[in-house]
User: Which sequence fits this backbone?
């Protein structure tokens, strides 16, 4: 009886979870993945609510109720968020790499092939999120942010430096990653020493990873960072566009 009641309660917050409901239940994402997605992938007779569950990789991909094509990458293990020390362990999964590989779900939802520099991955700070389970937002980059990065991109090097322009009124730092698929680079491990050098904790940080193309045509990434300060919750999700307006100019899939 208790199991049945719990499943009915979870069904109400599953893929039908509205933003306010999710905010009221900070464990909603964990409950969806832990009580539905992972068990279903293991053969349990429960509804599969995720688009994908990679048991070997330790993550699930879930369509977010917000946005036309926004997906979330969520670990199947209990990981609080960007502040988790587990992310900095030598053998930690590279969740950004996994999220980048999962960007095809956005393309399929849009029936478009987005250019590399219009796709983004975001993780918010501990203060700038509503859920207490790690999740990376996979979605379109906002059109004005994409254009700004194209303009200032040639000046972004491989070391952290503040961008010369504000994004959404906030000062972001940025660096370029010359690793087309994040085979050898974990963005969290690039951020940790930078945050420490400023006397800040990881929980105060937010990261946005945007696909990029160098002037010589080589694929790369721009990694953007902001941190919590007065009037700034450090939510780089603000740089994404959950309506995916950029998709109107992209190539339609057959």
Assistant:
């Amino acid at each position: 009886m208790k199991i049945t009641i719990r499943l009915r309660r979870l069904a109400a917050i599953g893929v039908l979870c509205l933003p306010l409901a999710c905010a009221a239940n900070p464990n909603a994402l964990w409950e969806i993945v832990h009580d539905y997605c992972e068990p279903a992938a293991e053969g349990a007779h429960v509804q599969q609510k995720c688009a994908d569950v990679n048991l070997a990789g330790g993550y699930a991909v879930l369509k977010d109720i917000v946005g036309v094509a926004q997906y979330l990458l969520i670990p199947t293990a209990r990981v609080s968020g960007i502040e988790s020390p587990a992310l900095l362990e030598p053998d930690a999964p590279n969740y950004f790499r996994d999220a980048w590989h999962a960007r095809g779900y956005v393309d399929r939802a849009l029936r478009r092939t987005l250019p590399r520099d219009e796709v983004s991955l975001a993780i918010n700070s501990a203060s700038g999120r509503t859920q207490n389970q790690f999740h990376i937002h996979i979605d379109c980059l906002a059109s004005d942010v994409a254009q700004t990065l194209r303009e200032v991109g040639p000046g972004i090097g491989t070391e952290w430096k503040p961008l010369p322009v504000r994004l959404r009124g906030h000062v972001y730092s940025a660096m370029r990653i010359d690793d087309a698929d994040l085979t050898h680079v974990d963005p969290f491990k690039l951020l940790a020493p930078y945050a420490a050098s400023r006397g800040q904790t990881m929980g105060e940080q937010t990261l946005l990873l945007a696909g990029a193309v160098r002037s010589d045509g080589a694929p790369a990434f721009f990694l953007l960072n902001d941190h919590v300060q007065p009037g700034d919750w450090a939510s780089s999700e603000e740089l994404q566009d959950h309506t995916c307006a950029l998709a109107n100019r992209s190539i339609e899939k057959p």
Summary: The mean pLDDT is 91.
